[in-house]
Amino acid sequence: MELVSDNRSFGGRQKVFKHPSNTCGCEMTFAAYLPPQAERGPVPVLWYLSGLTCTHENAMTKGGFQEHASEHGLAVIFPDTSPRGAGVKDDEAYDLGQGAGFYLNATRNPWKTHYRMYDYIVSELRSIVMDNLPVQDKHGITGHSMGGHGAITIAVRNATLFDSLSAFAPIANPTKSDWGRKQLSAYLGDDESSWAEHDATLLLEEHGWKGDLLVDQGSGDQFLDLLKPEALADVMARRRQPGQVRMQEGYDHSYFFVNSFARDHVRWHAARLN
Amino acid sequence: MELVSDNRSFGGRQKVFKHPSNTCGCEMTFAAYLPPQAERGPVPVLWYLSGLTCTHENAMTKGGFQEHASEHGLAVIFPDTSPRGAGVKDDEAYDLGQGAGFYLNATRNPWKTHYRMYDYIVSELRSIVMDNLPVQDKHGITGHSMGGHGAITIAVRNATLFDSLSAFAPIANPTKSDWGRKQLSAYLGDDESSWAEHDATLLLEEHGWKGDLLVDQGSGDQFLDLLKPEALADVMARRRQPGQVRMQEGYDHSYFFVNSFARDHVRWHAARLN
């Protein structure tokens, strides 16, 4: 693991690392915010999964999580959204290939060689973080858009590994959306039965989430038809899932939206991790 | 004035506008954050001047001012740092020409046609903001690096127009620095007597500032030799200038530094403007 940059931020340190990834078969980059409390001992971790087209950098620079993580004593990990590099299959579309890993393990050629973001997050990067950074084995997970999809699907499928869960404008029902069907078909093939474990709504319907779940969604989001928050709200209500879907008036899909509610989400996780 | 974008942010609106500038002879872009309080009536304005290579966008997306401006009911204006466009003289260096207007009116060819950022900020953009946005005639000013230089020099020379003043890592003594001598020579010519009114240290020595002055500087700033905070600290102490220069341990010159102290600066201005 090589240190790429290190900036003081809110009394802590905003670091960026790169490392060879066995899982993805390429070099991967991630960012880690370490709050001042981490100088005195290990702290809980909040994982933030980013959306389509993003790298580790977008939320690190625009999300505003450091201020609140510093206050509450959480580390924040910002992974990349896909494998990267000249040798990694890509696509001209912004929503397939590099920048669009969808937090799954591809099973089809030509994607299956590198596109293993599910294992990367759940296993490899988790081990790297726990072995190299001053963190406790207490993990919260959140994310935006494709990353909100990743957060919910990964947490529900690995409920013993995560202690708190939230999402910003998640792709909530990808098996029914053009943000989902195209990618699930490309990465997993046309047998839709293999898609269900990558759909937050279907997973919550089957398994629920062990804790309570916070979801924020802007009512002015330009992608509401693709995100399908109504599917998530419906299944949460039908299943009596503890938690809340908050429809935030007038907010769109941008980082101005994420930034506006970063404080609430960090507090949500801190209350459940500390 | 044309609306370029409009995003909901912390209950208010983050807008970007472009407009033809008579002063700069080109189209100019600026960002304006309007807090929720602006829907009920005019609010005071905080001007944020950016540093070398920046546009209106850097501080708007990375500074984190919106959260605190929303809490305290301030509008925040983020101007660009120079004239722009294909017809505007530029230079290959990052610290001269486009992105490096230094908040002065150039008097030499080929710069003097467009490089009039002093008049643009003090007069033209001020009028545009006051005529078109729900703001009071109460103005604070701050900025980072070249923008900190701009904030102090503009406020001290126009003490009747500004009611509060602060700076992040300002270029404090440009007549003695390679961030200054090169640009002042290019834009104003070799007669150094014309440079003094663009040097924060020399201006404070001669005029002082009517109020108190907050300056934050990172002790780990990679540009300390060019910024010369010691010159500013020295003249403030000798002149018994109310205010403070805070040396913040380990912070560098990045927006992680600005973001870390944005709250303090917004509070500083709000306490003096409200």
From TrEMBL, chains A, B:
It comes from the Bacteria. InterPro entries: AB_hydrolase_fold, Esterase-like, S-formylglutathione_hydrol. GO terms for molecular function: S-formylglutathione hydrolase activity. Serine hydrolase involved in the detoxification of formaldehyde. The lineage of its organism: Bacteria, Pseudomonadati, Pseudomonadota, Alphaproteobacteria, Rhodobacterales. It comes from Roseobacter fucihabitans. Its EC number is 3.1.2.12. Keywords: Hydrolase, Serine esterase. The gene is fghA_2. It catalyses: S-formylglutathione + H2O = formate + glutathione + H(+). Belongs to the esterase D family. Pfam families: Esterase. The keyword Hydrolase applies. The keyword Hydrolase applies. This is S-formylglutathione hydrolase. NCBIfam families: fghA_ester_D (TIGR02821).
